[in-house]
Design a protein that fits this description.
This protein has 148 residues and is an all-alpha fold. It has 2 domains: 107 residues, Hypothetical protein yqbg (Orthogonal Bundle); 33 residues, no CATH class. The protein is built from 4 helices and 2 strands, in the order ααααββ. It starts with a helix and ends with a strand.
Length: 148
């Protein structure tokens, strides 16, 4: 678990916009906080439930799972790359590949999928041996579902 500032600084370092010799400005950190919150809300909308806490200020605790930290950092770096590019290419192929592969791993681990009830055909016999007469058979009612 990390603070928002640590995540943002690591993302900025991935694109070369942060180092100990060249610290990020307060405006850059604030912009990173907004983009981080937006990115995590987008993931939540896609049913990727990490259990993170939206940041009120950048120094707040994000409460991300430990195995999702790199995916958050790499993908946030891609989000932040635009304003820092100054017309030059700052996103390396390695960063793009790391962001993609880590996101796919997080998606496979934390995405929740709702499986709907199965609608059974109205020509499916109901039970075994449910006969009232010699030629009558009992079938599932039309539109019946079977729960998972």
């Amino acid at each position: 678990m990390s603070t928002g500032t640590e995540i943002i600084q690591d993302a900025l370092a991935e694109i070369g916009a942060f180092s100990t010799a060249m610290p990020a400005s307060a405006a850059s950190i604030e912009s990173g906080r907004r983009k981080l919150n937006s990115m995590l809300e987008l993931w939540l909308s896609d049913n990727i439930i990490l259990g993170t806490t939206p940041l009120e200020v950048s120094g707040d605790e994000l409460n991300e799972p430990a195995d999702s930290r790199n995916a958050i950092v790499y993908n946030l770096a891609l989000q932040l790359a635009g304003p820092f590019s100054n017309g030059k290419q700052i996103v390396t192929q390695t960063l793009a590949n790391n962001a993609r592969s880590n996101f796919m791993k997080i998606k496979s681990l934390y995405r929740t999928i709702d499986i709907p009830d199965k609608v059974i055909s109205s020509t499916t016999p109901l039970g075994a041996g449910n006969r009232v007469g010699a030629w009558t058979r009992q079938y599932f009612p039309k539109g019946s579902t079977i729960s998972n």
